[in-house]
Amino acid sequence: MLIIPEALIAQLVSAEDAFGAVEACLASAARGEAGNFPVIREALGEGRQYGFKSGIDRAGGQMGVKAGGYFPGNAARGMINHQSSIFLFDPDSGRPLAMVGGNLLTALRTAAAAAISIDRLARPDARVLGIVGAGHQAGYQLRAAARVRPWDRVIAWNLHPEMLSRLEDVATDVGLPFEAVGLDAMRQADAIITITSSPAASLMAAHVAPGTHLACMGTDTKGKQEVEPALLAQARLFTDEVAQSISIGEAQHAIAAGLVQPEDITPLGALLAGQAEGRQSQSEITLFDGTGVALQDLAVAGVALARARARSLGISVEV
Ligand code: NAD
Q1: Are residues 162 and 279 in the same domain?
Q2: CA atoms within 13 A on the CB side of 68
Q3: Atom 35 of ligand 1 has which residue's CA nearest to it?
Q4: Looking at ligand 1, which atom is closest to the CA of residue 70?
């Protein structure tokens, strides 16, 4: 098996690779050729979460598991809060193929999923990008979103405003004007990405204008919440996986309140596979509940493995 350390990932997998890998695996799932297994995600106390996301993509030839979680004390120790590793296995024999550093891959595949949803669901004339959140993942989200629309400007809100300057640096780097705003000003946005670890809604229905597309990416665990459930009740809903959306995603709260039924939520893969319709009007709100699925992790790790083999990189070990 090949060990592909985190330090090698940046030279093996690009943002463009992540777009292709995520689109392909979500579409495979919609066609019934790939599936995620039930997620295990446990609260460890003090905001720490740890768990396992696993699945098999028969079309892509990937089987495996991502082990990892969120450890909010890490930032103070000079590490990112998200930590993960991805293990790939041969789907025919079960033999381990690779252990792949999962931190950058998670950032890239999460940003790609939100950007793909913007590409497919935001209005064609969307020009103002809103971001709620300014942690490690926010910059990746901004960079990926910049690839799919010609934004005029970026507006952003974060509970901890001192973190916004790092996001402004990313906006400057991709050539976009940046403004820190209050949540009320999010009504100016045509698309909004939420990417926080919040345990309660920050973005309310009153903060969102008709015709907006939302990519809600922060809620990936029971108990997290970024937006008001009433917003989901008003919106046309999409997700990476319905089972995760209603249990650990943003929809968990609207489902619990009886505002939304699982049948109201369309897999983004169905849209990508040509099995479902997207936005129906200029004025409707669309919302992608991006919970983060194993298939995304396996797909980008598969790219890393193929590239590492082709370039004779990584550490080969017998197990
Ligand atoms: P981070 O720790 O670097 O940043 C956390 C962000 O949340 C910061 O903007 C912080 O100001 C904000 N925040 C913290 N407490 C808050 C509160 N009470 N109310 C509002 N905002 C609050 O984390 P990150 O790596 O940027 O990840 C952000 C979130 O995205 C995490 O919840 C993480 O688990 C999740 N995530 C989801 C996926 C997915 O596939 N859906 C993938 C990666 C990360």
Answers
A1: yes
A2: 26
A3: 218
A4: 34
- 203 and 301 assigned to the same domain: no
Say if residue 87 is in the same domain as residue 196: no
User: Distances in Å between the alpha carbon of 64 and those of 12, 53, 98, 305?
Assistant: 19, 8, 9, 13
Dihedral sign of CA atoms 98, 103, 104, 106 in order: positive
The torsion angles phi and psi of 168, rounded to 5 degrees, stand at -60, -40
Expressed as residue numbers, the domain containing 253 is 121-292
pLDDT at 59: 83
Count Cβ atoms within 10 A of the Cβ of residue 165 and give its class: 0-12 exposed, 13-18 middle, 19 or more buried.
Answer: exposed
Pair (20, 55) in one structural domain: yes
Q: pLDDT tens across 108-117, in order? A: 999 999 999 9
For residue 113, tell me if it sits in a domain.
Answer: no
* CATH assignment of the domain containing 196: 3.40.50.720
For residue 255, the model assigns a pLDDT of: 98
Predicted confidence at residue 218, as pLDDT, reads 97
- Counting atoms of ligand 1 from 1, which one is nearest the CA of 137? 26
222 is catalytic: no
300 and 276 in a common domain: no
Can you tell me the mean pLDDT for 118-122?
Answer: 98
> Which residue has a Cα nearest atom 37 of ligand 1?
218
Number of domains in the chain: 2
CA–CA distance, 131 with 196 (Å, rounded to integer)? 10
Q: Which pLDDT score, from 0 to 100, does residue 60 have?
A: 82
Q: What is the token pair recorded at 118? A: 């913007």
Query: Per-residue pLDDT tens for 17-67?
Result: 999 999 999 999 999 999 999 999 998 998 899 999 999 998 888 999 999
Q: Are residues 273 and 306 in the same domain?
A: no
Q: Which of 197, 241, 248 to mutate to test the pocket of ligand 1 (most atoms within 8 A of CB)?
A: 197
The CATH number of the domain where 45 resides is what?
3.30.1780.10
Residue 257, number of CB atoms within 10 A of its CB: 12
Ligand 1 atom with least separation from CA of 49: 34
